[in-house]
Automatic annotation (TrEMBL):
The keyword Cytoplasm applies. This is Cytidylate kinase. The gene is cmk. It comes from the Bacteria. Keywords: ATP-binding, Cytoplasm, Kinase, Nucleotide-binding, Transferase. Its main location: cytoplasm. The lineage of its organism: Bacteria, Bacillati, Bacillota, Bacilli, Lactobacillales. Residues 3-218 form the Cytidylate kinase domain. One of its GO terms (molecular function) is CMP kinase activity. Belongs to the cytidylate kinase family. Type 1 subfamily.
């Protein structure tokens, strides 16, 4: 079974996807983490974030691996755990440019589809229901106000131990800029699939969002 969860930055996709995957014993695939890993690789190789050829070569050299350790997903590249690195403000500010590169997306989508074809998965990102898994049995599109997403991101930084001097207003501006880039890119822009269920998480708790998505999954299971 394939469950696709899409939506803009910090709408709560990864948080709820991890919980649902655990509840259902599905494999969780964080596609955003994969693009962030590409961005870390580009930075580590001192490449321009628009250097598609160089970034592809560097990805082949360093590799990207998702591992489950102690119930948590870890991201490795070049044999190093980069799970915290991929969440830093610098990577957040540049991942849109890297993820918009057509051949980088092509490479990641191929990897994502391969994973999804081998097991029950819950996958989150921005183009899962429209491009990566267009035939997913369940499609969810999460939205939330920019302010609430900025507050969540600031809290996430603190919980991960990531230091930042940004104010919530500056983070909100960054998120708005990211939304624009993601929804206006030429390749696989952020948009809601026609058959996706939209959930506004602004005033919902994590548990409430999880319950709504589980209800959609149960409805889909009854069809088979």
């Amino acid at each position: 079974m394939q469950v696709a969860i899409d939506g803009p930055a910090s709408a709560g996709k990864s948080t709820v996807a991890k919980i649902i995957a655990q509840k259902l014993s599905f494999v969780y695939i964080d596609t955003g983490a994969m693009y962030r890993a590409c961005t870390v690789i580009a930075r580590n190789h001192h490449l321009d974030y628009g250097d598609e050829e160089g970034i592809l070569k560097a990805i082949d050299e360093d590799g990207i691996e998702l591992r489950s350790e102690d119930g948590k997903q870890k991201v490795y590249s070049a044999g190093k755990d980069i799970s915290l690195e991929i969440r830093t403000p610098e990577i957040s500010a540049n991942v849109s440019q890297v993820s918009a590169l057509p051949r980088v997306r092509e490479k990641m989508v191929s990897l994502q589809r391969k994973m999804a074809g081998e097991m029950n998965v819950i996958m989150d990102g921005r183009d899962i229901g429209t491009t990566v898994l267009p035939n997913a049995e369940v499609k969810i599109f999460l939205v939330a106000s920019p302010r609430s997403r900025a507050e969540r991101r600031l809290l996430d930084f603190k919980e991960r131990g990531i230091e930042t001097n940004q104010t919530v207003e500056e983070i909100e501006a960054d998120i708005a800029a990211r939304d624009y880039k993601d929804s206006h890119r030429k390749v696989s822009p952020l948009k809601k699939a026609a058959d996706a269920t939209e959930i506004d998480t602004t005033h919902l708790s994590i548990d409430q969002v999880v319950e709504q998505i589980l209800a959609e999954i149960k409805k889909s299971e009854k069809k088979f």
